[in-house]
Amino acid sequence: MSSKIHPPGIRATKGLAGSVRGRLWPLGQAAVGLASALATGGALAQESTPPTETPRTESPAPAAPAAPSEGTENTFVLPTVKVQEAADPREYHTEQSGLTRLPQPLLDTPQSVTVVPEKVIEEQNATTVRDALRNVSGITVSAGEGGRQGDTFNLRGFSAQSDTFRDGVRDLGWFTRDTFNLGGVEVFFGPSAVLFGRGSTGGAVNLTTKRPSKRATSSVSLTGGTAPSGRLEVDVNSVISERVQARINVLGQLANIAGRDDVSENRLGFAPSLTIALGQNTSLDFDYFYQHEQSVPDYGHPYYQGGPVGITYGVGRDVFYGVRGEDRERVNAHVATARFQHRFGEGREGSPRLTNTLRLGGVDRFSRPTSPRGLVPAIHPETIGRERYQTDTDNLYLINQTDLRGELQTGIVKQTANIGLELSRESRDQYRDNLTATGASPNLPADLFDPEPTPDLSTVNRVFSGSNESRQWDVGVYAADQMAISRFVEVLGSARVDIFRTRYSAVDRAGVRTNLQNKDTLFNWRVGLVLHPLDKTSVYAMYGTSANPSAEAGALANNNATLEPETNQTYEIGAKAELLESRLGLNASVFRIEKTNARVANSDPTQPQLVLEGAQRVQGYNVGVTGQITSAWRVLANYTHLDSDILEHTNPYLVGQPLPNTPKRSLSLWTTVSLLDGLTLGGGAVYQDVTTVNNPTSAAQSYNKVPNYWRFDAFASYTLWERLDLQLNVNNLTNRLFYDQYYAGQAVPAAARTAFLTARVHF
């Protein structure tokens, strides 16, 4: 968390005059002088513009004024000006990715990358990665499905279910990731297989964790919400010695969801980390992440007449079809990481640097949700079926990544290259029981408009549904080289080979076991051209590939075990610029993603059930801005336009339909303005277009769609004392009913209007 720290003997200026002078320095000396004159009643103060990289400090105490000399009786003596510490431009605008295998600045990277910085996460009180990603257009969130829930994202129309990473290493497991130990969230759009491996068709999400630093800081924040909810966060960074620093982040949360009966999100988190300098050029890092969740899962509302019943049929936003006291989600996530880094060549800039990361992680998850299924009667329904089941899922993974990167000057060509090796083993064991009722239907009936929260469960029996286990191994080798031929031209080439093996075993409800295995060799590559027509600008073109093996999500079936991976191609042309002394970043791109061999149902019943005869395409453009327009005005905004199509399919009726969960237009905006000393106001807006959630296979079926929506939020913070900040957030200001998580089976209502008050103390 950021804090306003002043060196000993230096204090922030109080009062309107100091505030106005401090906020207007980017506009030039003349504007500062005029504002100072107006604020101080005629005394003209001049200030110099400091570098943006360092905080501004007050001027030293002046010497005693000299006696006026002859002819100076009309000369005014300028008063000493105390200057407030300038905001760090990097708090909004990020110039470098946290990935060690992406050594070039984002300006020189031929790919769309959007970063949600820690400052924005803090200002928005964004407690989950899902909340943080509201700041990134072109992303949708899937609702729970078959017992799954948590962070299931779609990027540019394609599933990124297994494409979440933590500090560049794959982060597995179905759970809702909290932000209490995150220093930012990076979204890499386009083909990222050379960076991350399998999947990443539409892109990948990388979480950057908070690391120890050589500056001793501590903060405690306490938040209360109207849902009601309460949240405590502690962040302590300790400098044990010049060579050893430690940091610990702690979280506790008890939270109901505004506007949703019986739904809660209760979490506990603990994340210590340690950095040890073994030598001048060698370091060793350790960090551990633990998150516990004990919540009530929300599977939302069913569809009727083409949309969620809350929109099309007048069902209340608060209507929850679960069973009070019985529906639950329990998660225990553990991630332990050790990282070794060494820079060769006496640590000179550009010298080769070796990084080895070893991670052991596990996620144990138990879920007992209720899915709303089966409206009765079909016309003007009054009853909904409660489909209930429980799943127990255990994930365990061990991953080692080794990266070596460095620079080489050959004549006029400067090469920035890296090579790497990734070894991983993943396992998942899952067990499922159905909770079925005796009678005509296995689903408990409930009133569609007023469901009984504590129904009679005496007729419900637990019936074994199935179990499965999977073991996966991956060996990945990758290399990249970005050559700067001159200060105007750079060429990028990269490639990765993965050998991905899966062994899968499943037992059905009749006790019949099926053993399957699969081995895929994935070769993906990418090339790019970067031009620098002006300083701090780039224009780029990029082409890359990615692949989706059948066992990408850890499961196999008889109809896909022998299929080759789906393959994808992405074309992107874009431009980036850093303005106002690199305080403000601009970016824009046009892109096309093509999946040329999508898995589709076979129309020939004598052949395998699935064949690689489909084709899909998503094309569009995005624009974005992030950073400081002035020292007082910050902004993070982006817009994405997506046009998706099914180009080929064995069922002609599907050709021409859009891809599910792919809104045509989406917009995200967050902006803040520091008006007076210590007072900051701001707000945000999120827009998402009408979104289809299914693909009808015949004229007898209809589209289900989630309506478009606007969401507006407000923010205010005030530094009450030097070490105490108060922050107010009001989310969904208009209290509009909308759905921001959905899939073909149901859509989940977003929280109603909610206010949060946070007190944050810095030590």
TrEMBL record:
Organism: Cystobacter fuscus
Protein's cellular compartments: Cell outer membrane
Molecular function per GO: siderophore uptake transmembrane transporter activity; signaling receptor activity
Keyword Transport among record annotations: yes
Biological processes annotated in GO: siderophore transport
Keyword terms: Cell outer membrane, Ion transport, Membrane, Receptor, Signal, TonB box, Transmembrane, Transmembrane beta strand, Transport
UniProt domain TonB-dependent receptor plug: residue ranges: 106-204
Ranges of Low complexity composition bias in the record: 38-51, 57-73
UniProt-listed Pfam families: Plug, TonB_dep_Rec_b-barrel
Start and end residues of each TonB-dependent receptor-like beta-barrel domain: 276-733
Signal sequence, renumbered to the chain: 1-45
GO cellular component: cell outer membrane
Lineage: Bacteria, Pseudomonadati, Myxococcota, Myxococcia, Myxococcales
Stated name of the protein: TonB-dependent receptor
Region (Disordered): 38-106
Membrane topology, from the record: Multi-pass membrane protein
UniProt family annotation: Belongs to the TonB-dependent receptor family.
Biased segments, Basic and acidic residues type: 85-94
